[in-house]
Design a protein that fits this description.
The protein is an alpha/beta fold. The protein contains eight helices and five strands, in the order αβαβαβααβαβαα. Keywords: 4Fe-4S, Disulfide bond, Iron, Iron-sulfur, Metal-binding, Oxidoreductase, Queuosine biosynthesis, Redox-active center, tRNA processing.
Length: about 220
Amino acid sequence: MNRNYQKELEKIIEENQKQGKIPRLFLHSCCAPCSSYVLEYLSRYFEITDFFYNPNIFPREEYEKRTEELKRLIEEMPLVHKPVFVEGRYCPEEFFEMAKGLEQAPEGGERCFHCYRMRLEETARMAAEGGYDYFATTLTISPLKNAGKLNEIGEELEKIYHVKHLPSDFKKKNGYKRSTELSGEYHLYRQDYCGCVFSRQERERQKQEQKEKLLRSTL
Ligand code: SF4
């Protein structure tokens, strides 16, 4: 049976509210557009540390652009509990090592599952080290990401690092739609590829194919 991670999250929020708690959440953020709705939603109920750890992003200029955009968003958004921004290590060589042999895997395949784990594992480790109540990731907001797999990995890491994983499927309840509205409102930079060099090449190939198709249709 398919689990409803949004409902599970709502239950946890409700329980904490009943007990008058504002738990500390260590939240992995992939980029400003995805974080916009998640921060708007969760900052009502959690004290958030926003963790930008994305060694998958290529090239460095793109990584820096996404980092700055997220920092700006956090500064500009009028949130109930203002999140604290923390930047992780930028270690693309570790990402390339992890992706060895999976370079040609399509987006959404095996390479991505390893990429999810790499980012979530560092998040869980840091959350445990900092004595946080929960850890989570903004990645589940994207319709292109496998929310089931992300939650499954989160639950495995919860057992290893002894810090609670916060279930999520942020695209639900119009979360993805709201993130596009907020991206417009804050004039956020919206990248057109997921992040790694392989996703960038895939996107460039798709754009080229579209261009050629368009050209052929005008002949
Ligand atoms: S396509 Fe995205 S999720 Fe997949 S490996 Fe590349 S950066 Fe990671």
